[in-house]
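Run log, item B.
One chain of 138 residues. Sequence copied directly from the ordering sheet:
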Amino acid sequence: MGDKQYLKKHVLPLYMKMAEFYENYLTFRINEDGTLAEWMDKNYPDVYQHRHNSHLHPVFPRIELIHAVDTALLHAATAALYKRFEFDTSSTHGLIHLALQAIHLKNTHIMELNLDMSWKAGKLVSFAIHGSSSISLR
């Protein structure tokens, strides 16, 4: 079987299936608070006072929402960032993710506050290719 035949028989159907999944299931939702919803399923409520912020992963580490044409989604992502930021976290990893999400949303206020909180907690953050680690300055 040649390369073109293999691609047509095996790769193209998988690509089409994934494209259909992405188009039909991976839609962003704005909840009643006006924030980017944590869950696709409306039966799961948003909980802002925990370190989970994977609903903002399309902002960072991914970039789907950075190039979004729908400005309502960008406003909802910023609102979600503020809601999540209202609750302090002792997790430097969480603070840095929020800071990087703020940078991608061009929100220097939240970025500066997050980095300041991390600094005051006595932690210096260094990033490796596959993760981050915290080093105490005290």
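Observations after the first pass:
- Residues 124-138 have pLDDT under 50 and may be disordered.
- The longest strand covers residues 123-128.
Flagged for discussion on Thursday.
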